Amino acid sequence: MKIMVVQGPNLNMLGVREQEIYGPMKLEQIHNQMKEFANQNGVDIEFFQSNLEGELVDKIQECFGEVDGIIINPAAYTHTSIAIRDAISAVSIPTIEVHISNIHRREEFRKQNMIAPVCASSIVGFGPFGYHLAMIGMLQIMNEVRAVREAQQARAAK
Ligand code: DQA
Questions:
Q1: Would residue 132 show up in a list of annotated catalytic residues for this protein?
Q2: pLDDT confidence bin for 126, thresholds 50/70/90
Q3: What is the Cα–Cα distance from 41 to 118, expressed in whole angstroms?
Q4: Is the pTM of this model over 0.70?
């Protein structure tokens, strides 16, 4: 099983940017923790961060046929990007959206979310721990997908 973690604009500045909102952890530390959890659970994991919308779209497209689940924090593009939303729909890979802050309690413009409707789940407001919750959620989704596939195979073999 393989998970792709896609991080949007300015998340490379975690640990520096608006610490009162996003906390002191750097992106690299978050990724190290995710990698450790993935290793413990026999999951392959890859990380990608970009400040460019098109690069994020390219990365999601590259996941097609290669990746079992996507964990994405589209950052500011959450509120504007139909292109990222369409890419997630196009590849049809189970996707969990993470936001470090609670976007529902912030400025009005952050309440518009282009991405959530095409995701299996959204995790908001847990700080960096949200990425860990997303990993647990993704394992659960993968187990459910596997159970459905096995049931279909068993039925077909009868
Ligand atoms: C964010 C929330 C977005 O509104 C913001 O633009 C970000 C980070 C979060 O993780 O809380 O860059 O996605």
A1: no
A2: very high
A3: 26
A4: yes
